[in-house]
């Protein structure tokens, strides 16, 4: 008995758009659920080598919850490319200044590396407020259960 895999055309045909309101939801729960939907793991036709996931729009990213003392103790670092220029910022400050980047970093860490992961990341749309330009896409609510 052989296992049948999706073709790329079949994977592209069944894509949906989901919206998730991140108000008062812990960052890790948001990131893990969104990463699973972007990969397509919630579908019965999941194939690890094909981008069969759905689009996800996250609204109210600035109101995501950081549990415990993570707002002050978690340090996020990036390198600018110049010698000796590692920039550090706490997760709480990053949430206040650029909440889209905080969620994008959390979700990106849960997706595969390489070209397939980059393709999956393009289906993630994050907005700090409640307004977004994707109203025409017939968005469905994404539950965390």
Could you explain how this protein is built, in words?
With 145 residues, the chain is α/β, with parallel strands linked by helices. The chain has a single domain (14-131), classed as Ribosomal Protein L13p, Chain: A (Alpha-Beta Complex). The chain has six helices and six strands, in the order αβαβαββαααββ. α2 (27-39) crosses α5 (99-108) and α4 (91-97) crosses α5. The chain starts with 7 loop residues before the first helix and ends with a strand. 23% of the residues are buried. The model has no long low-confidence stretch (mean pLDDT 92).
Please specify the SSE layout and strand pairing.
Blueprint: H1 8-13, E1 17-21, H2 27-39, E2 55-59, H3 70-73, E3 75-79, E4 86-90, H4 91-97, H5 99-108, H6 115-121, E5 124-126, E6 140-141
Parallel strand pairs: 1-2, 1-6, 2-5
Antiparallel strand pairs: 3-4
Helix pairs in contact: 2-5, 4-5
List keywords for this structure.
145 residues, alpha/beta, Ribosomal Protein L13p, Chain: A, four-stranded parallel sheet, two-stranded antiparallel sheet, 6 strands
């Amino acid at each position: 008995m052989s296992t049948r895999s999706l073709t790329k055309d079949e994977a592209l045909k069944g894509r949906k758009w989901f919206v998730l309101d991140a108000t008062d939801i812990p960052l890790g729960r948001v990131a893990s659920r969104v990463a699973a939907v972007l990969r397509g793991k919630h579908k019965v036709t999941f194939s690890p080598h094909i981008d069969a996931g759905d689009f996800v729009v996250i609204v109210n990213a600035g109101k995501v919850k950081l549990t415990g003392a993570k707002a002050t103790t978690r340090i996020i670092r990036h390198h600018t490319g110049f010698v000796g220029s590692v920039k550090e910022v706490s997760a709480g400050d990053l949430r206040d200044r650029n909440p889209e980047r905080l969620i994008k970093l959390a979700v990106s860490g849960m997706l595969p590396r390489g070209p397939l992961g980059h393709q999956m990341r393009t289906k993630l749309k994050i907005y700090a407020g409640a307004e977004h330009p994707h109203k025409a896409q017939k968005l469905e609510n994404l539950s965390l259960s």
